[in-house]
Amino acid sequence: MPVPPLYTIGPIQLLLNQIPEDSLSPIGYSLWKEETECRQWLNSKRPNSVVYVNFGSVAVMTPQHLVEFGWGLANSKFQFFWVIRPDLVVGESAYLPPEFVAETKERGLIASWCPQEEVLNHPSVGGFLTHSGWNSTMESLTAGEPTICWPFFADQRTNCYYTCMEIGNDVKRDEVEMLVRELMEGEKGKKMKKKAKEWKKLAENATDPHGSSPINLDNLVDQVLLRKN
């Protein structure tokens, strides 16, 4: 049986960004209202100094996991921007202790949702703690951001295996702190940042007007029209 042709097209985010903004103005795909106030906060931070944290639109966690992630971020002493969805915690509202809020009020920002692609491309962001969903994986790749992952289900563990450092299912604050420090200032983190920039360049090359993505898309269209005729 002959093997069907395979046409690799993407990353879609970069292809979408080539369309004039006026053509996209009516289009929106965010599940929640984006809190854009984070822009001003990020603008006030030094380059590569902020850890961005977002576990996507579906992943959930226990109250204990939330607290462990929180204290891991706090104990790392790095600035962070953390997106906490209203339904992130299973069966109840997300709650962080007052001690955590007091400890991090000068270097942490929490929002319920944000324009993620814009945040990942902001100069102040130096790393991404994620669930490794496909959209987040591709957006971090095209932004050139190194990642720490906490995969939840489906393809996320596979995505994590190929792209980042992994946090175990039994979340502990000491492990979160250690991985954040390693990502932001360690030797492994420096290598990851270098590799992430290389991936970004490859993605840009693929979506260049003369890159593999437009060429493959043209070949796909030609093949479909050929079969139709």
Automatic annotation (TrEMBL):
The keyword Membrane does not apply. GO terms for molecular function: quercetin 3-O-glucosyltransferase activity; quercetin 7-O-glucosyltransferase activity. GO terms for cellular component: cytoplasm. It comes from the Eukaryota. Keywords: Glycosyltransferase, Transferase. Signal peptide: none annotated. InterPro entries: UDP_glucos_trans, UDP_glycos_trans_CS. It holds the Pfam family UDPGT. Belongs to the UDP-glycosyltransferase family. This is Uncharacterized protein. It comes from Prunus persica.
